[in-house]
Amino acid sequence: MGEGRGTDGTSQARPRREPGGGRRPEAGPTARGADGGAPPAAPLRGLDAAGGLAALRGLLDRPMASYYLLISSAGLLLLIGLTMVFSATSVKDYAEAGNATTSVVKQAIFAVIGVVAFWACQRLPATTYRALGRPLLFTAIGLLLVLNLLVAWARLSNTDSASIGPIEAYLNWLFIGGVQVQPSELAKFALVLWGAHVVARKGAALGWWRELATPLVPMVGLLFVLVGYNDLGTMICLLALVVGLLWAAGVRLRVFGALSVAGLIGVGLLIAVASLGAGSGERGAENYRLARLMSFFSPPDPEECKLTDCYQLFQGRLAIEHGGWFGVGLGKGSLKWDWLPEAHNDFIFAVVAEELGVVGCAVILTLFAVLAYTGLRIARRVDDPFRRLAAAAVTTWLISQAVINVGGVVGLMPITGLPLPFISDGGSALVVTLAAVGMLASFARAEPDAARALHARPPARWVRLLWAPLPPLPGRRRRTASPPAARGPVPRARQRRSDEQAAPRGARQTRARSGTASERRR
């Protein structure tokens, strides 16, 4: 059954009847290959480049894509940072104190504080950030003044540190009651909030020089001097932050040109004052800032300076060369054993290159690229000028600091001593960085599409209480008010004229006086 014979006597396949009443054709000779074997494989769908790009575009078009990209990239960088801090400090900590987890436990405590700061900052609205800008800026300036005065006093008294009451200053750090604080990190966040508020308030008036001169330029110049006296690298990061802020505001190019000239003059002066004891320099000694700059533009022979001037850079190059493509293995690097200076902080990227190789470095750089894309995406999508400017400034701050650090390690830029965000050891920098990312997360939830999606399907109430409240809905257009319902007869003053035009409100139609006065009084 199921077969019939053709005219030539051969059997032919008949289509079988399916339960629904239709017919399903059987596989005949045409379904096989030319050689009678198995049929050719159908091309796989969804695995081509166009399909992959379409799928990626679909994921990025989701309302909460910015938020998830931000917390995933920042979270992965934080985990990698804790791992690399443990790898870079465990051997030295065990040799000095007998405990390999001393530094990583301290960094983990600051990471927990930073996560709490992230949680608090993502719950705050834009109005709160506007109000916090000026107090934070004045606090940072006050701490920087105390730091610089104490450091100058230590220079005059030929000591390493100076103290006044419970406050002690050493180079770039203040110790307040045993708690180590770096005021320049707080100055970055304060400048973002205050600068974005001032620029958003001025708006299109920024095209005039007098609007920049009051109060943006004087305050930024004071902050640059206070920060750059001890830490030139952080001052350059602040300069990049201001450039990103003004670029997002649409300032004209000639303003950028004038500010660039003023910035270069200021950097030159801050390099010169290192001979007077600024930063870690000493009066009468070689200007270490100038030496670093000259060694970058005219690098000496490594065989001649590897034990003196370019020792740190030489050891970093050895670590990168030793790592190769895939590294020697996590925790198996050898140059961190007190060979590479500041292996846990400024040159932790060299430790990553030695232990994880080019692949590990590429992963970290990719995560920073995702963070940069997400920050600029948030700045482009939000509709509030303050949010847009603050998001662009924070993104410029984090990415420029990462570029300066990595460029200094690999030799593409001069060494400035800036830490690598999320990765390097440092409590103040990690807490402030996570707080800034929390502000970006708040802005990501306030994107128009994200806000509408969250209000359309709001999470549970306990989630909103424990994690983040619902963002405000974007502004809606006011609908035209419908005319009020008729209430009795229309007054004579508003009656339609014969030409279909309403009489002006309050206008009285002319009435001809008729009759005597006594009749009118009736």
UniProtKB/TrEMBL annotation:
EC number(s) recorded for this UniProt protein: 2.4.99.28
UniProt biased composition (Polar residues): 512-522
Family matches, as InterPro entries: FtsW/RodA (IPR001182)
Cellular compartment(s): Membrane
Gene Ontology CC terms, in alphabetical order: cell division site; plasma membrane
Predominant localisation class: membrane
Catalytic activity of the protein: [GlcNAc-(1->4)-Mur2Ac(oyl-L-Ala-gamma-D-Glu-L-Lys-D-Ala-D-Ala)](n)-di-trans,octa-cis-undecaprenyl diphosphate + beta-D-GlcNAc-(1->4)-Mur2Ac(oyl-L-Ala-gamma-D-Glu-L-Lys-D-Ala-D-Ala)-di-trans,octa-cis-undecaprenyl diphosphate = [GlcNAc-(1->4)-Mur2Ac(oyl-L-Ala-gamma-D-Glu-L-Lys-D-Ala-D-Ala)](n+1)-di-trans,octa-cis-undecaprenyl diphosphate + di-trans,octa-cis-undecaprenyl diphosphate + H(+)
One Gene Ontology term of the molecular function aspect: lipid-linked peptidoglycan transporter activity
Keywords: Cell cycle, Cell division, Cell shape, Glycosyltransferase, Membrane, Peptidoglycan synthesis, Transferase, Transmembrane, Transmembrane helix
Ranges that cross the membrane: 67-88, 108-124, 136-154, 174-196, 208-226, 232-249, 256-278, 347-376, 388-415, 427-444
Stretches with biased composition (Low complexity): 27-40, 481-492
Keyword Lipid metabolism set for record: no
Protein's membrane topology: Multi-pass membrane protein
Any Gene Ontology biological process: peptidoglycan biosynthetic process
Region of interest: Disordered: 1-40, 474-522
Record keyword Glycosyltransferase present: yes
Pfam families membership: FTSW_RODA_SPOVE
Biased composition (Basic and acidic residues): 15-26
Superkingdom of this protein's organism: Bacteria
Role noted for this protein: Peptidoglycan polymerase that is essential for cell division.
Family affiliation: Belongs to the SEDS family. FtsW subfamily.
Name of the protein: Probable peptidoglycan glycosyltransferase FtsW
Organism this protein belongs to: Micromonospora avicenniae
